[in-house]
Design brief:
Layout: H1 2-18, H2 22-29, H3 37-42, H4 44-53, H5 64-107, H6 112-134, H7 152-156, H8 162-191, H9 200-298, H10 301-336, H11 340-371
Helix pairs in contact: 5-6, 6-8
């Protein structure tokens, strides 16, 4: 076994050295695997393993011995299926003959011999079916009680007379052939509707090769189905490659758009800023101009200059008051830190100051009246 593997490795190595389409060969050997040529290129050892494995298994992943056993099992299953289908077709054909006879009896009179033939066949089928149900097989329990207490021998006693059975057996091939021919003609009419108006001999001639033609078309349909399956796998692989390449292109396009947009956006923002700055400056100058015009329309030039001086003086006083206010607020904040005791002293100090001012005013008034 090791010698075989070594020889296979040598063969694979020679393939790697001599063939440029090893990846395509591996992909063709394993069509059901979800791998791409890029995967094989990135993993050369894995590619060698698949190439070696392809010499021992087929495209479905089965080895040669297992494939042989599977073919034998399929042949055996096909033989048993053919045998069962033949028996089942015969049984259903007989059942259809019985149903057709019942339908004809409802619409018209039926000859006595035909009626006896069908009744005998129906009884024989029913007895045979009951015997088959009552006959114990190797898979059933031998101690299992019989259905309704009946044995196959008791059911066989219900068979029609031997004479009628013999007549039925003699007529059965002919009647069954007529029924099957009728069904075949129905199939031919469905398959080739134009054959409805043809002669009986021509229809019979077409029936002789209808089976071969249907089999040929079936094989053709299966071949087309296999081709469609292979094309589906190939399409899926190509779709994956296409999507991967498309994603790369989209990412590249996004990066280009983002970079260009950032550059353009920066330049656009700078121009907008310059525009708004110029517009703001223009509006400011326009407002100043309007204010000057309003002043000139309202006051003379001397009054305007006086107003400016007054405004400047008031503005300086306002600023001085603002500074004094801030200073007093700071002092007040520092006093508030001392608590309620200092607040009581401050109130007492304020009260004393008021009394002193009142007494000074009274003293001043008194002194003024004395001088008079």
């Amino acid at each position: 076994m090791s010698a075989d593997l070594d020889s296979n490795n040598i063969h694979v190595s020679s393939s790697l050295g001599n063939s440029d389409n090893l990846h395509q060969q591996v992909l063709a050997s394993f069509p059901l695997c979800d791998i791409t040529e890029e995967d094989l290129t990135q993993n050369p050892q894995f590619c060698k393993l698949l190439a070696t494995l392809a010499q021992h298994v087929n495209q479905t992943g089965l080895t040669v011995p297992l494939k042989t056993e599977l073919e034998k099992a399929e042949q055996k299953l096909q033989s048993q299926r053919h045998h069962w289908l033949r028996s089942e077709s015969l049984y259903r054909g007989l059942q259809e003959m019985i149903q057709d006879h019942c339908v004809r009896k409802q619409h018209a009179s039926v000859p006595a011999d035909q009626n006896m033939f069908v009744e005998t066949m129906e009884k024989c089928l029913l007895v045979a079916q009951c015997v088959k149900q009552l006959d114990p097989s190797s898979t059933t329990n031998p101690d299992q009680p019989l259905v309704l207490g009946l044995t196959p021998q008791q059911v066989m006693e219900l068979m029609p007379p031997e004479k009628n059975v013999q007549i039925m057996k003699e007529s059965l091939p002919r009647e069954l052939e007529k029924h099957l021919k009728k069904k075949c003609l129905s199939v031919l009419s469905f398959y080739q509707p134009e054959s409805e108006n043809e002669s009986e001999g021509l229809k019979t001639s077409k029936l002789s090769y209808l089976s071969a033609r249907l089999d040929k078309e079936k094989k053709s349909a299966e071949s087309l189905k296999d081709t469609c399956r292979e094309n589906t796998v190939l399409l899926q692989r190509q779709t994956q490659l296409y999507l991967s390449e498309l994603i790369k292109c989209i990412q590249l396009l996004q990066s280009l758009i983002l970079n260009n947009r950032l550059k353009v956006q920066t330049e656009l923002d700078r121009k907008k800023l310059d525009y708004f700055e110029g517009k703001c400056e223009l509006l400011s100058q326009k407002i100043k101009l309007e204010m000057v015009e309003v002043q000139l329309d309202t006051y003379p030039t001397e009054t305007i200059s006086a107003h400016k001086k007054i405004r400047e003086k008031l503005e300086s006083e306002r600023k001085a008051c603002q500074v004094e206010k801030q200073s007093l607020e700071l002092k007040l904040a520092s006093f508030e830190i001392l608590g309620k005791e200092f607040e009581t002293l401050a109130e007492e100090y304020y009260r004393l100051r008021q009394e002193i001012e009142m007494k000074n005013w009274a003293l001043k008034e008194f002194t003024q009246y004395n001088d008079m």
